[in-house]
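Task: complex structure prediction.
Instruction: return structure tokens for all chains below.
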Amino acid sequence: MPTNGHRLLGYAGALLEAVDQEMARDENVITFGIDLDDHIAIHGTTQGLQEKYGKDRAFSTPLSEDAMTGFAVGAAMAGMRPVHVHIRQDFLLLCMNQLINMAAKTHYMYGGQLKVPLVERASIGKSWGQGAQHSQALYSLFAHIPGLKVVAPSNAYDAKGCLIAAIRDNNPVIFVEHRLLYYTEAYVPTGSFEVEPGTARVCAEGNDLTLVGISNMVPECLRARELLAEQGIHVEVIDPIWLKPLDMATILMSAQKTGQLLVVDNAWTACGMSAEILACAAESGLTSSGIGMARMGFAPTTCPTSPSIEDAFYPNPGSIAAKIYSMVHPDKPPWQPDPDRAKLTYQSSFKGPF
Amino acid sequence: MEKTRQSTLSSDDYRRLYESLQRIRCVEERIAEIYPSDKIKSPIHLSIGQEAISVGICDNLNRDDVVVGTYRGHALYLAKGGNLNQFMAELFGKTDGCARGKGGSMHMIDMSHNILGSSAVVSTHIPVAMGYAWRLKQQAKGQVIACFFGDGATEEGVFYETLNFASLHKLPILFVCENNGLAIHASIEKRWSQRNLLSKVAGFGIETAAVTGMDILEIHHKAGAAIEKLRSGSGPQFLECHTYRWRQHVGPNEDFDAGYRTRDEMAPWVANDQVARIAKKLDEGVRAQIDSQITGEIECAERFAEDSPFPKTQELWEYVYAD
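Output:
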């Protein structure tokens, strides 16, 4: 909601504003990545930074993800605050050695003598045939590793606040951006602010079921909530925002209130964030108090490109709403919302090719 | 050439080189003696026989210059002036170790001497040195970083990625390849399609030099020239030093019974031992004084390590994240 100093800003613009303000505030902040300074400027998120801060602080790199991640780690050890940008998270697989063996380990294995204040920005995405190697959301791989922090903001406000927090954090942070969210807007303060690690948010209140959405699944869950309200079902939607550290307390408090917990991940379910959240919930004693738990995520397949099967690969407001209806009304016949009304405008307006 | 180079070194220089060489040799021989007692519960990769590379290069570096190395890194740590007490305590797994008992033999660090640690995953530290060098270049105080690695590291893709970017941006890095001809137990014949490493490196526009005879004076001289160029901003320099590992890949012993190499193969390297060579350049009295001092240092470090407590259980959870 708009308050003093807030104005509508797109997700991409919020990311740009965050890094711009941090680069102005702290000369140790540098940003680099493949094609950072071309006409697309990582969807506009790096537009003008090189002109403003020079080629030593904002620059494009060779296609050497492994070395450039090591570069980022070394620069961070030397006192800089690198923001390393990737246009696809799939390419972070080329950086895993540096991120897991070096960035995550350094502070611990050197007994605190060094720290690695590093941000790895990487987008994830769906639709328009992104397919097998351009659609993966791999954040649970990183959330598995002690020493790394992971954040997946779902709106422009959190995008700015989380990126500022990530840059100021003294640890390596994997910053996950969903490409479809670049086209969404939210009220964002003009000034600097942080959405601190370990902060979840109750996005919309309700008493019948707790619905946890991750990244792009937050707006999908919010749409499902609207459809369910018409059926008399009132869902509480929670955005964890930070996947590590994870604010389980907010999720548990809600689940205890509603008695039902559904986690909708923007990723596969096996060994993923939905598994982690439900395991934490079970360990906290929720199961013994009779609370129902379920999860949704990508189909356990590789992501295809043809629309007819790509649509079935992802959870959507329709499938989420149908699942919730069956959880709240296990004795009633299944219900499905009108598929046309389940569509999200910001998604249907998206066209390729990039 | 040898004569010229020698004439540039004073007796103080020889004294300093010997002290550093001898300290490393004696420390590692002592580690090998202690090892069967299981007081050191950490895989050790001894530098014995290879000390002259670290010593010859680090003698050209200032305290504010930076080094980073590999799991075979004891020589580098000690040659750059790393604290011996904390080193020994780290080997013993004690809380006063340089990494508080969390790093062990393969991750020795002493930032008070700009020793930027060492990595156990081959070549992982090479681009890290490049990132550090970026900062040094920005600060423009004439500092350099020397990055040490073995011949095996030159087979990793990240090595070439790093050469490219470091050359593109003229970063102040001295790349040092300690070529002992073995990656664990595999000879170069099994691994390299082309034997000339330096021509590959030169392809990136990087100035190269080699020392094939394990001659500390030549290493000292060529490293000095390369470091001077680095300080004047001429971009990365590459030095390949041929050498020989006298002990096992990992562990305190010799391993000539393993069958992948022979004692005869090692003989010329032992005959060319640089510790013994530089020792001969000192007066007997001076040498005895240094030897006695080093014996004392090692005894002191062992006592320090013995007396230091093991980390408390609570320390397991410390330093997972930086504040």
